[in-house]
Amino acid sequence: MSAESQSSSQTTSGLRIINQQPSDGRMLLNSLKGSLPGYEGRRTIVITYSFTAGNLMGVSYEAQEFTEYLPLNGDGGICLNLLRQTFDAGLIFKIQEVGDRRGKIVWTDEFPHKTNKTGGPDNNGYPDPDHTMKLKEALEAKGFKFDASIRY
User: Fold this and answer.
1) pTM over 0.85
2) Which of 54, 69, 134, 146 lies at a C-alpha separation of 20 to 30 Å from 107?
3) Which residues make Cβ contacts (< 8 Å) with residue 26, sequence separation at least 6?
4) Are the C-beta atoms of 131 and 119 separated by less than 8 Å?
5) What structural domains and CATH numbers belong to the chain?
């Protein structure tokens, strides 16, 4: 694996961004019997990312939880495997400073994510027939490859 480390800090529109994911995060999996629009007949993978409150580079942040949805099909399974590796490498989230030494955890914009089951691409939801392909390409572009030893 040749994942890049993101521990730098940058300023965008007057807001400081810390390109580092809090190290205490957890990635939990569940599946729903229901299908996502466009993936009828397939189960749905629900990924819950959770972080406790903490401090990173002098910026305090509150505990937060995020949910992402993937179809349980071939590409969805590959994406799940690559997401696990990417999350473990600390590359899916970052800290955005929102006030005096206060921040919040936000998604990195390097990877597409679906936080809604419906609503289409403009609402981070499904149907979006190209989502798993785009996600897989973005994750692989960071140097991650499918690892059959990762079990769920």
Assistant:
1) yes
2) 146
3) 49, 50, 51
4) no
5) 9-140 (3.30.390.130)
Phi/psi for 98 (5° steps) reads -115, -5
One digit per residue, the tens of pLDDT, for the chain of length 152 reads 434 444 455 555 557 899 999 999 999 999 998 999 999 999 999 999 999 999 999 999 999 999 999 999 889 999 999 999 999 999 999 999 988 899 999 999 999 999 999 999 999 999 999 999 999 999 999 999 999 999 87
C-alpha 80/C-alpha 114 separation (Å) is: 13
Q: Which two tokens stand for residue 95?
A: 């800290």
CB 124 within 8 A of CB 51: no
